[in-house]
Structure formats: structure tokens, C-alpha cells
UniProtKB/TrEMBL annotation, chain A:
This is LLGL scribble cell polarity complex component 2. Keywords: Cell cycle, Coiled coil, Cytoplasm, Exocytosis, Phosphoprotein, Repeat, WD repeat. Residues 272-370 form the Lethal giant larvae homologue domain. InterPro entries: Lethal2_giant (IPR000664), LLGL2 (IPR013577), WD40/YVTN_repeat-like_dom_sf (IPR015943), WD40_repeat_dom_sf (IPR036322), WD40_rpt (IPR001680).
Automatic annotation (TrEMBL), chain B:
The gene is pard6b. It comes from Carassius auratus. This is Partitioning defective 6 homolog beta. Belongs to the PAR6 family. Residues 267-281 have a biased composition (Low complexity). One of its GO terms (biological process) is cell division.
Length: 1003, 377
């Protein structure tokens, strides 16, 4: 009976947990790491990006995004949408082809892999015969043409991946007809390009690496015309008129050829080297699109003069008199052009370029070809992210002011709306406005709208202007001088180079009610800022604070303090600094806290902590926490002696890393590589046995390095010295397991400007287990965490319960300990490390609620060094739930994690991407979108047997048409007949009743 | 803590015969087993019967195993009375000339005759080297290691407890990844494991002789390490370093504890090897392992060290346990000398075991006052 009752209780508890907590990784924000392929479907208006790690991501209108991952851990090398379908084919580095589809399910589309395929050559053939180098998704949506390294073209029926052997185009078929004296005769090399005649889908152009191009008739399975190019071929482009062909070459030239019917054509119509005279780099891709306003747009990548600009990543756009070489900061992966109009055959409207570190969209219709700001895929890492800070439920007023300040910064962007608008975003509007602030290495703080699925840039704040740095701010402006050739124009914002590493932002704290912002940096600088809607010229008052307090025998060998500009600086509208604290020694700021009601900022470094009154602009108190024997902290990071063990470990890592990258780069000789790897691994293992990785088991001692490093600072209005009167207090926790408490006397509002703020030491707690203190929270009489400053004043939180005793929760890396206040006695604790060996890396206070109940419950959200998330109840400090979240090897991912106040969180899954997760059932931000099949496809709704019939016995209409087109009639005639053909094609399909739904995998 | 301790219930005799020895003099008297009274009354009685009213005494008794144990509070006094079978042998020493090293089990265990016991007491220097440092109080004796749970573990395994407390000596060992062979239904299988890779000479681990290089670590404080990474196990050990219990499978299986067939019948586990350090580290001498450390509970609060709280105006104090359990029946009171610093709460007439580090804490408190910085242990 008793047992039964307890069981009932348990299940009730479980239900409660289920009501409150659930773990989901919801969205990936930012730019995919190491993109390797780009695809675009004009009919769906969707963009696809494949990455080196085998991920495939689809983006449409803002909020429409899909993500898929190939099981094979191989790079995606090509992405092709099947024209007018919701299917997509990816080619991986391991030569496998994958079919993906967007399947609607409960009014929501899902990206699913529905088939995979690898070409199988004839028995005994070398692997190069079937190694795919070029893919053409035929406009019929039923055929894939696969060009291979061996020069063959295989024809495969999709979506079922059925090889149509009889349709294959072998090298021999092509070679037979080449004149004897042609240089490339012996070896055509791989198929570099496959292109369909835009007017006649039964004709394809096959481009071979050595320069030969062959116009092939799919129906009669014979070549129509040979173009005997002599330069190494890079790409081909069939112009819209169906008559002219462009080919680009490795020597930086491009040629124009005309489809004449005279076979073979030995000379191009026109040959040009745009940046010529001196040797140029290859033009890797070229396209030309007609424009109603004058001459066509010619767009190509590469082709730069090898010696002077060979290292630039450029795409040149030429349109009548306008010629620009768009200069990107990272390698170009691929590009495409979006065209207006119903059938996407109209004016070119935007150029979309995928470079290694960002996606850049250039508006081709506005004057000066401005860049369109991307609503997603924003490069978070344009300067490396050094820290992040999340603020939930931003008041509308502040939101609008930040937005306005940001709008003033974005004037150089195009006014055109975002051109990729596929799919429908069905996700509900975000319930609140959330800001994510990221601190960067170059001293900027970026404000992101993190309310919804798209992490949208709102405002960028630069702190560099306050300081004198080596870099001349005019450096970057000197570009694009008149008459420069090629006419470069810098585009994109990825700029990994920091002028001065000391500018790096380490800690951010924003008060959403008052608009005060504190940012702290690498060289001990703490800036206090205020939001101002007007530009202002002002001098920033600097206060140097000596944290050592006369500690003897000190020699700081680290970086120097930043020099402050003494003259007034003009600050644009937005957050403007008005006070600056500089710690001495100028070590990295490791903790800050801002109390906007008391107008105090606390800061800490590895040497100690202090706090500053930014109303009266003076420093109130300093406490040195340094252990005199701690040489490492004393002298700064530069003097750190590298141990032999450490360097050995590092060299091991380097070997491993180089092996990994080797594997990534050259998979062609994968077998050989595998062998090498195996040998290396065996060697490494042998070495391991000689010197195994050992871990010392030793109790922590006070002599350990950085015990004085301040890990956390916390302002609280609580009972520190007696149980009847609460007072303002400041709490600090160190790496050595010490907690310091100070009682503050903050003058009343009327006397705030005159009377000094006074602090005196009240308590010190030394945790016996000595683990670093990573979090301090005071719980009120009801066991709830104290509200944020000004939260109560703005009626956004109930006032804390001041009756009943307050408790101090000390979170160390190893334990959670609850102490009574004001008499600090241990009440309860939860050991983490002693029980499962994991340590607290990140901790935050969050509120959870069920979907139905208004009532919120507070809890601690914890991320451990094992990458596990825990929710710990308050005030009972019991583990509620835990979920694996991040790989434990991903140290930087774990370190980057930031929690929101409502049980969500973000961490960097790569230097450029935030993964968003949610632990809450009530607050989940995840994409919810629908992509509908294009009209043509819905009309067709084909069933596979029909296709086969058509392919095997090609309808007569087709034949007729082919003959007609062979006659090279007038363009209009061709077009007319083509249209006629298409209708018959459609009708044909409509007549045959579809026998089933779409072909699925394995069929 | 004394959950396995059994009070003899079938005794018919209600009187306890007491034989008390002070110097060369004996006194005999009897006490009522059911009404032993309090320790201070007993102490007064001893002073009275020996006619030494103004001499500070250390009272010791020989327990059933022949160990010399102290009597200095109500709890251990009552225990001594209840355990007397039927004679209670007392040994009195002047406090100022007491030989604390006689307490404990090490030297006395095997010599169970009163004569031998007396010999140890009376001629403290006879067969042992005097420690170079000043000998501290009996309460400062503490075990540094023990083998525990012999009765419940397979013979191939050994559960070793290392008592680090506040002492200087490093734990002194390293662990590494390795692989061991397990017998599974599918046959022999190689599984990853954690092994001791190195011992630091002079470290606690080495000095106990209970751990050796290549011993496989199976558990840390009752938690299995299988499936955990080297770093995780390292962190677990460090987090438990003040009271580390490691279950190992010794590489050398020849020195295993052989269970005595009769020994286990009483239900108590035998501590086959318990070594004591005889110099000044705080601890409760009454923690004779043979009675206290039986099957280990992982979350034994009483083994925890306490955090140190310094009030700005009052100096250092130990954090009292808010919901303290009065389980520490065998502990001894702290010396008056330290009491002003400690702010200890007596509970049920017993001082809390939290006086473990009282000595060090007191010192620390003073350092704080002098230098204004925390000198940590």
C-alpha cells in the first residue's frame, strides 16, 4: 500500500516534469560552417547550401528554413533542385547521390531524404569511370545526367535512381567523330559541364575538361555539333537565345560559340580575356543574362591578373558601361542570379553569391548595385565572437530606440526587399522581444533580434573609438580610387582581422529598463554606456583602478593598458560611453555586474574586484583576491611557461587535425589515405602506450593558479548582517572557492548625487571543496530568485518576499549549496562532480511554466563540461531533468552557451553558427513552414510507369520537334514549337491517370 | 554511525565491575549498568577513589577487542559501561604526561592481555620510536587509510579509504586510461578501464601500501567508473579528495585479504589494515574503524568538511549544520582553548563532529585577524 502510494506520487512528479520541461534543438542561427555547395530553385524560390560536414540547409522567405544531414560524413559538392519539383539531388564527396524532398505533413513541410544512389560502372572499370564530376537535373524533372571523371555521361531516371544504360553517352561515342588533328582527341578528360539547351530540352551540351564541347541529341543519341576548344574548360553557359554558348577557361579567357550546325566548329566566334594582357587566373563560372535595358549582364567569377590580384576573390559584373569587380573577403563557393517575372525569365534582379564565410546578395536593379541585407545566414563571426549575453522581454521603447539607431547604420544597404521568398512561414509571432548581444574580438557589440527563427542584426556598437589604437580608421576607406583596374569594390562584412586584440569584448550587461549598458574587455577596460538617440561629441572620463592594493613583488608582464583618446569623440546615435574604468593591471575582465537602480557597476579580474559609482563617477571599493604565491596571475598570461607535456599534447592534436583536413581535401585517393591513417593511428597508439595520458589526483590547494580570479559578481538587496533589515549588498565568488560579501549604503534618491556610496566587508565564505564559484543567487522568503534591478519598479515582477529568511545559493563548479542568511549556515546541498564527475560550466536562472498553467516556477539551468543540460529545482536544489546537448569534446561550444530567462539557450556549434535549444515546454522557437509544389508539378503529379513509357518510346511530337529544331529555323519558330511541345507534353500526362502518388524511396 | 553496534541484551548482571589503574595503583568499585550517570560524575568519582582531586586525567579503557579507547564524554562513557564484559578496565593517566599514541588499535590489538596493555601504557617509549614532533591530544588521532567492506566485496576487489582531511601529505597518485579483460556471456571481452598509473613517493596513497600501479579503479565513493572518461573520473576523485574511497582490482592479487571464517560471524567487517599517524592532525580518535566504518554510505554527511565563514567583526567560525543530525555519538569535545573561535553548538550534550578541523580553523581565524587575508588550508 505504502509502495503503491509512493509510486503514485512519483508519477505525479514525472507528469509535472513533463509539463514543464522538454528538450529540443530548434533552430540554427548564423552562417553554416564550411559551406561547399549552393543550389537554387527558381520555381520554389528556395536556396540550398551544402556543407563540408554533410549538412544541407534550405532557406526561403524569412522564417522558412529546413535542415538535413547526410548520414555519410562527407562534404556536399553539388546541390541541384529538380526543375519545377520539390525534390533536390545532392552529390557528396564520396560519389554518392542523394534525393531529398520536402514532404508536407500536418500542414508543415519536412525535409526528408528519400533515396540514395551510387553509379556502378561496368565490372573491372577504374573508379574514375563512375566518379561524378558534373550533374544536370534535366528540365523534365525525370532525368539526371551525370558526367564523370572518365568522360562518360550516365543517364539516370529520378526520383527512383534507375540507370538508363541505353541512353548513356560514352567517351567512345563522342571521340569517333572528332577530327584527327584536334589536340584534345586522345584524352577528353573529365566532363566539366553539362548544360541543357534553354529552348530545346532534348539537346544537351557536354563540356570536357580539355576544351572540347559536344552538342548531343538525347533522342537520337548522337552528337549534333563539336566545338573544338583548345583551352582547359572551366564552365559553359548556354545563352537564352539557344544559339550562343559561352565557355570559360583556365587562362582567364572566355569564348563565345554559335550553334550553326556546321560540324565541327574549330574557332570560337569571339574570345576575350577581360583582365588580360598578363596571365590571368581561371574564370570558374560565367553566365550571361539578357536585359531589356540595353546589353546583357555578363557575370563571371575569377579571371583576375595572376601576379597582382591572384589572391582576390572576385566576381565581375558587366552591364553596359557599368563594370565592377566585387571583391569578397573569402573564397567564392558559387553564385546565381535571381530573375524577375512569372517564369523567372525576366530581368536579372539580384546576384546571390555564396562565399566561404557569408552569403552576399547584390541588388542588380538599383543604382550602384548595393548589397541587400540578408535576413538570415548572417555571418555572426565577421569578427570572432568572444562572449554573448541574452536579454528577454525587451520593453518596446528600448526596442524601438535600438532599432532606430541600427537603421541609421544600414543606409548603405539596398532598399529592395529580400528576393528569396519561397515557402510560407507558419510559425506564430514570437511572444516577446528578445535581444542577443554578441561581443567580438574587434571591440564591437552586435545586437541581434533573437525573438524568432531568424537571428536578425539590429544594431552594431563599436567601442574602438574610445581608444587610440595602432590602426588608422581611414585605412579601409582608401579603396576604390578612381581609374583602378580592375574596378574593385569591397563587398561583404566578414573581416576576421582585429586591429588590436585588447579591444576584445569579454563581458556584457544590459539593463533593459534603463538602457544602461556595460561592456568589459580584454585589457581590463569597463565601459558604461547610455542609449542616446542623438549623435554626441563627448570625452569619456577614465578612472584607473589599482586592484593590487599594494601587493608586493608584483611584476605584470602582460599587455599594456589601452590608451584613451583625450579629445572629445563624436559618437553616433545609439549606445554612447560616458564612463570608463580601467583595471590595473590590465588583465581580462572576468566578471561584471550592473545595478542600474543603485547606479553601480562591479567588475573583477584575476587580481581582484571593485565597484564603481557611475552616478558620481568614482570608484567605491577595491578588494584584492590575489594569492601572493600565484605567479601566473601575477605576471600575466604572456609569461606562462608551456610544459613539455602540454606541447606534446598539442603536437598530437596538430597531427590529428592535419589528418582530418587531409581527409577532407583529397578524397580522390581515399584508399591510400586510409592506409596512411591506419598507420599513423597505429604509430600514435604505440606512442600512447609509451607515455599514456595521465591525470594527477590531488586535492585542490590554495596554491593553485588563478584562485583569486573573480568568476561571478552579484548585487542583491537582502539580509546580510541582520535579519530585520535588508540592505544592498555585493557578492563576489572566486576561482578558489571563496565568496565575499559587502554591505553597501546607497544614499537616497534625493541625496544620490552628494552623499557617497559606502561599502564595508561583511562576510567571507571559504568553500572547503575549493571549487570555483560560478554563480551566486539570493532566494527570497518564498524561495524565488530576487528580481532584476528596476524590474519591480517597472511593475514587471512582484516584489521579492522580504518576510521569512532569505537564502544564498552558491553554485560552484562541483556543488550547489544553499546557505541561510544573514547567519550563513549550510542548509542543503547538491553534489554534482562527486557523483558523476561532471562540472558546472554554465549556469543561469530560468522560469518554467506548463502550456496550460499561468504559474511559473524558477529553476537553475546548468550546462556541464560533459555537455549535459540539467534543470535544478529551486529552492530545493534537486535535479529535475537532464539531457545531453553538446559533445563533450566541443569545449568552445560549451563555453559559449548562454541561457535565456525562459529556459531557452544558445551555443556556438561552429565559429559562425548558434544552435538554439529549448528546455521549456511553454517557450519554444522553432521553424514551422510550408513549401508547396510549383504549379507545373502539381498539374503533372506523375507516376513512374508513364515516364518510362515516354522515355522508351519517345512520343512522336518530340521527334517532330527535334527535326524541326535541327533545321535551325528562326528563333521565334523554335519558341513557338517548343511551347506547343510543352502543352502536348502536359496534356499527355494529364491524359494518363496517375496511378499513385509520388515515387518514394526504394521504388 | 553505530547502526551495527549491538548492545548486549541478555545480561543478567546489573552491576559493572570496574578496575581502575592510575600509575601503579589499582582501585576496584562497581557501577550500576542501568544507571551509569554522567561522565563528569564518573570523572569526579575516579578522582575521588584514587584520591587525586586536582589532577587532570585522561581516562582510557580496554574494550572487548583489547583496544585502548578514551572515555571523555557521556557517549563513550556509556558505551564503555555497556560493553564491559563484565569487567571494565580503566587506565588513568595524568593529562600532562599522557602518551596519546597508546590509543587506537595498532599496537594493542594483538596483545590482549591486560599486562601487555599496561606495559604499553606504562612504558610508552619501550618499543617504539618517539615521533619527532610534539604529540598532540588523543582526539587528534585519526586514521589515514583503511580497507573497508571486506565482507561484501568479491575477494578480488579492495575498497580503500584515504583520509585526506587537512593534512599536508599529498594524495599522490595518477590515473590513466587502459583496457581490462572481462568475462561476459560472449566470452572474454576487452573493455576500457581506468588504472592507477603512478604513485608519488611519500604520498598518502603510497604510504598506505593499499594501492599500487596498474590497479584497476572500479568505483569512486560508491559510484562505478565504467563508462566515464578519464577526466570525469579525475574530477570525481578530486571532488571526493577529502574522503576518497576507491574500489580497486589490485594488479597483484596475492596480497588479498583472506577472510577469517569465524570473524565474519559477528556481522562486523574486519579492518585488516588500519594505520594511524601519530602526529598532530585533528580528527576524532574515537573513530575506531572496527566499529564505525562498516558498509559505507556514499552521502555520509558527517564525513564532510565544513565551509569556513568569516564574519567581518567576529572572526572565523565554522558553518554549523542547519539541520544537524546528532549522529556523532563517539566524538569528543573540542578543547576549551579553541572554543572562543569556534562557536560550536552542543547537541544533546555532545559536541558535533564538526570539530574535525577545529584546530586548523582556529589557526586560520587568527591568521585572518593578523593579515587580513584568508590563509587557506
Amino acid at each position: 500500500m505504502k509502495r503503491f502510494r509512493r509510486h503514485g506520487h512519483e508519477s505525479q512528479k514525472d507528469k509535472h516534469k513533463q509539463d514543464l520541461y522538454q528538450f529540443n534543438k530548434t533552430v540554427e542561427h548564423g552562417f553554416p560552417h564550411q559551406p561547399s555547395a549552393l543550389g537554387f530553385s527558381p520555381s520554389l524560390d528556395l536556396l540550398a547550401i551544402g556543407t563540408r560536414s554533410g549538412a544541407i540547409k534550405l532557406y526561403g522567405s524569412p522564417g522558412v528554413e529546413f535542415m538535413g544531414l547526410h548520414d555519410e560524413n562527407a562534404a556536399v559538392t553539388q546541390v541541384h533542385f529538380l526543375p519545377n519539383q520539390v525534390d533536390m539531388v545532392t552529390l557528396l564527396d564520396d560519389n554518392s547521390l542523394h534525393m531529398w524532398t520536402l514532404q508536407a505533413h500536418n500542414g508543415m513541410s519536412e525535409l526528408l531524404e528519400i533515396g540514395r544512389f551510387t553509379l556502378s560502372g561496368p565490372p573491372g572499370a577504374p573508379p574514375s569511370v563512375t566518379r561524378v564530376t558534373a550533374v544536370l537535373a534535366h528540365s523534365s524533372g525525370e532525368l539526371l545526367l551525370l558526367g564523370t571523371e572518365g568522360g562518360h555521361v550516365f543517364v539516370v531516371e529520378v526520383p527512383g535512381f534507375r540507370e538508363l544504360e541505353e541512353n548513356n553517352i560514352s567517351v567512345e561515342n563522342v571521340q569517333n567523330r572528332i577530327p584527327e588533328d584536334y589536340v584534345g582527341r586522345r584524352n577528353l578528360e573529365c566532363v566539366e559541364a553539362l548544360h541543357e539547351n534553354p529552348l530545346n530540352p532534348r539537346q544537351v551540351l557536354i563540356g570536357y575538361s580539355r576544351g572540347l564541347m559536344v552538342l548531343w541529341d538525347l533522342d537520337r543519341q548522337r552528337p549534333i555539333q563539336h566545338f573544338l576548344g583548345t583551352q582547359q574548360l572551366e564552365s559553359v553557359w548556354w545563352m537564352e537565345d539557344g544559339v550562343n554558348i559561352l565557355s570559360s577557361h583556365s587562362d582567364g579567357s572566355y569564348c563565345q560559340w554559335t550553334v550553326t550546325g556546321e560540324d565541327p566548329q574549330t574557332e570560337p566566334e569571339k574570345q576575350e580575356t577581360p583582365y588580360g594582357a598578363f596571365p590571368c587566373k581561371a574564370i570558374s563560372k560565367i553566365i550571361q543574362l539578357p536585359s531589356k535595358q540595353g546589353p546583357p549582364f555578363l557575370i563571371f567569377s575569377g579571371g583576375m591578373p595572376r601576379a597582382s590580384y591572384g589572391d582576390r576573390h572576385c566576381i565581375s559584373v558587366i552591364h553596359s558601361k557599368n563594370h565592377e569587380a566585387l571583391d569578397f573577403t573569402s573564397r567564392i563557393i558559387d553564385f546565381f542570379v535571381i530573375r524577375e517575372g512569372e517564369n523567372h525569365k525576366g530581368e536579372p534582379s539580384a546576384l546571390v553569391v555564396l562565399v566561404e564565410e557569408e552569403l552576399v546578395v547584390v541588388d542588380l536593379q538599383s543604382e550602384g548595385w548595393p548589397v541587400i541585407q540578408t535576413p538570415y545566414l548572417v555571418p555572426l563571426h565577421c569578427s570572432a565572437i568572444t562572449c554573448s549575453h541574452h536579454v528577454s522581454s525587451i520593453p518596446l521603447k528600448l526596442w524601438e530606440r535600438v532599432q532606430a539607431a541600427g537603421a541609421l547604420q544600414n543606409t548603405h544597404y539596398s532598399k529592395k526587399p529580400w528576393p528569396i521568398i519561397g515557402g510560407q512561414n507558419l510559425a506564430p509571432d514570437p511572444p516577446q522581444r528578445d535581444l542577443l548581444l554578441t561581443g567580438h574580438e574587434d571591440g564591437t557589440v552586435r545586437f541581434w533580434d533573437a525573438s524568432g527563427i531568424c537571428l536578425y542584426p539590429m544594431y552594431k556598437l563599436s567601442t574602438a573609438g574610445v581608444f587610440l589604437t595602432d590602426a588608422d580608421p581611414n585605412d579601409n576607406m582608401n579603396q576604390g580610387s578612381e581609374g583602378e583596374w580592375p574596378p574593385f569594390r569591397k563587398v561583404g562584412c566578414f573581416d576576421p582581422y582585429s586591429d588590436d586584440p585588447r579591444l576584445g569584448i569579454q563581458k556584457i550587461h544590459l539593463c533593459k529598463y534603463s538602457g544602461y549598458l556595460t561592456v568589459a574587455g580584454t585589457a581590463g577596460q569597463i565601459l558604461i554606456m547610455e542609449l542616446n538617440d542623438e549623435a554626441a561629441e563627448q570625452t569619456v572620463e577614465a578612472t584607473v583602478v589599482d586592484l593590487l592594493q599594494g601587493q608586493e613583488g608584483f611584476r605584470w608582464k602582460g599587455q599594456a593598458r589601452l590608451d584613451v583618446r583625450e579629445e572629445p569623440v563624436l559618437f553616433p546615435p545609439g549606445f554612447q560611453p560616458f564612463a570608463l574604468v580601467q583595471c590595473q593591471p590590465p588583465a581580462v575582465v572576468t566578471a561584471i555586474a550592473l545595478h542600474s537602480e543603485w547606479k553601480l557597476v562591479a567588475f573583477g579580474t584575476s587580481h581582484g574586484f571593485g565597484f564603481y559609482d557611475y552616478h558620481q563617477k568614482n570608484n567605491i571599493m577595491v578588494k584584492c583576491t590575489l594569492n601572493p604565491s600565484d605567479q601566473v596571475a601575477l605576471e600575466g598570461p604572456l609569461s606562462r611557461v608551456k610544459s613539455i607535456k602540454k606541447s606534446l599534447r598539442q603536437s598530437f592534436r596538430r597531427i590529428r587535425r592535419s589528418r582530418v583536413s587531409m581527409r577532407k581535401h583529397h578524397t580522390a585517393n581515399a584508399a591510400k589515405l586510409q592506409e596512411i591513417n591506419a598507420r599513423l593511428e597505429a604509430e600514435a597508439l604505440q606512442e600512447m602506450e609509451l607515455a599514456p595520458v595521465q591525470r594527477k589526483i590531488e586535492a585542490r590547494s590554495s596554491d593553485d593558479s588563478f584562485t583569486g580570479l573573480v568568476r561571478t559578481l552579484y548585487f542583491a538587496d537582502t539580509f546580510v548582517s541582520d535579519s530585520s533589515h535588508s540592505t544592498p549588498s555585493l557578492w563576489a565568488g572566486t576561482n578558489g572557492g571563496a565568496v565575499f560579501a559587502y554591505v553597501l549604503r546607497v544614499p537616497s534618491l534625493e541625496r544620490r548625487a552628494e552623499d557617497p556610496v559606502v561599502a564595508h566587508a561583511a562576510k567571507e565564505i571559504q568553500l572547503m571543496h575549493r571549487a570555483p564559484v560560478v554563480g551566486l543567487v539570493v532566494l527570497d522568503g518564498k524561495g524565488a530568485p530576487l528580481p532584476e534591478p528596476l524590474e519591480v519598479a517597472h511593475d514587471l515582477a512582484r516584489s521579492p518576499e522580504m518576510h521569512g529568511s532569505h537564502h544564498l545559493l552558491v553554485v560552484s563548479e562541483e556543488q550547489f549549496k544553499l546557505f541561510t542568511l544573514p547567519k550563513v549556515s549550510s542548509k542543503s546541498k547538491l553534489k554534482l562532480t562527486a557523483v558523476d564527475g561532471s562540472r558546472v560550466r554554465r549556469v543561469g536562472v530560468a522560469w518554467f511554466g506548463s502550456k496550460t498553467d499561468e504559474q511559473l516556477e524558477s529553476g537553475l539551468v546548468v550546462l556541464t563540461n560533459q555537455g549535459e543540460l540539467h534543470v535544478i529545482s529551486l529552492p530545493s536544489i534537486k535535479m529535475m531533468v537532464h539531457y545531453p546537448c553538446i559533445r563533450r569534446e566541443d569545449v568552445s561550444g560549451i563555453a559559449s552557451c548562454v541561457f535565456t530567462k525562459y529556459g531557452q539557450g544558445f551555443y556556438l556549434m561552429s565559429p559562425s553558427e548558434f544552435e538554439r535549444f529549448s528546455l521549456s515546454t511553454r517557450w519554444v522557437v522553432e521553424p514551422h513552414c510550408l513549401v508547396e509544389a510549383p504549379l507545373q508539378m502539381r498539374l503533372k503529379n506523375p507516376s513512374s510507369p508513364v515516364h518510362r513509357d515516354q522515355l522508351d518510346g519517345v512520343p512522336t511530337e518530340h521527334r517532330n520537334f527535334k527535326r524541326e529544331s535541327e533545321g535551325y529555323g528562326v528563333l521565334q519558330e523554335i519558341q513557338k514549337s517548343l511551347e506547343g511541345d510543352q502543352t502536348t507534353f502536359l496534356e499527355n500526362n494529364l491524359k494518363t491517370k496517375p496511378k499513385g502518388n509520388m515515387l518514394s524511396n526504394g521504388d | 554511525m553505530n547502526k551495527n553496534h549491538r548492545v548486549p541484551s541478555n545480561r543478567t548482571l546489573n552491576a559493572v565491575e570496574v578496575k581502575s589503574k592510575f600509575g601503579a595503583e589499582f582501585r576496584r568499585f562497581s557501577l550500576d549498568r542501568s544507571k551509569p550517570g554522567r561522565f563528569d560524575e564518573f570523572y569526579g568519582l575516579l578522582q575521588h577513589v584514587h584520591r587525586i582531586p586536582n589532577v587532570d586525567l585522561l581516562v582510557g579503557y580496554a574494550d572487548v577487542h583489547g583496544d585502548l579507547l578514551p572515555i571523555n564524554n557521556d557517549d563513550n562513557y556509556h558505551k564503555a559501561i555497556s560493553m564491559a564484559a563484565p569487567l571494565l578496565r580503566l587506565f588513568l593517566q595524568r593529562k600532562e604526561e599522557a602518551d596519546y599514541s597508546a590509543f587506537g588499535t595498532d599496537t594493542v590489538t594483538r596483545k590482549k592481555t591486560p599486562a601487555a596493555l599496561a606495559a604499553v601504557l606504562l612504558r610508552p617509549d619501550a618499543n617504539k620510536k618517539k615521533p619527532p614532533i610534539i604529540i598532540s591530544l588523543p582526539k587528534d588521532f585519526r586514521p589515514v587509510s583503511s580497507i573497508i567492506d571486506v565482507d561484501i566485496l568479491p575477494e578480488t576487489h579492495r575498497r580503500v579509504r584515504l583520509y585526506k582531511h587537512g593534512q599536508e601529505k599529498p594524495l599522490g597518485f595518477y590515473i590513466r586510461d587502459g583496457s581490462s579483460v572481462r568475462v561476459t556471456p560472449q566470452g572474454l571481452e576487452k573493455v576500457p578501464g581506468i588504472f592507477i598509473s603512478r604513485m608519488v613517493p611519500g604520498g598518502l596513497a603510497e604510504s598506505t601500501g593499499l594501492l599500487a600501479v596498474n590497479d584497476e579503479v572500479l568505483e569512486v565513493n560508491g559510484i562505478e567508473v565504467s563508462g566515464k572518461s578519464l577526466d570525469q573520473v579525475t574530477d570525481m576523485m578530486i571532488a571526493n579528495s577529502h574522503n576518497l574511497i576507491i574500489t580497486v582490482k589490485p594488479a597483484n592479487q596475492r596480497n588479498n585479504v583472506v577472510r577469517s571464517s569465524g570473524g565474519g560471524s559477528s556481522g562486523r567487517s574486519s579492518d585488516s589494515s588500519t594505520s594511524f599517524y601519530g602526529y598532530s592532525t585533528p580528527g576524532s580518535m574515537a573513530m575506531t574503524p572496527s566499529h564505525i566504518i562498516q558498509n559505507y554510505e556514499p552521502d555520509e554527511e558527517s564525513e564532510e568538511e565544513e565551509d569556513l565563514v568569516i564574519e567581518a567583526d567576529r572572526g572565523a567560525k565554522l558553518i554549523p549544520q542547519a539541520g544537524a543530525r546528532a549522529t556523532a555519538s563517539t566524538s569528543m569535545p573540542t578543547l576549551p582553548r579553541y572554543e572562543p573561535h569556534l562557536d560550536l553548538r552542543p547537541s544533546n550534550g555532545t559536541m558535533s563532529t564538526r570539530s574535525l578541523n577545529a584546530h586548523d580553523m582556529g589557526l586560520e581565524g587568527r591568521n585572518l585577524e593578523e593579515e587580513g587575508t584568508v590563509i587557506t588550508l
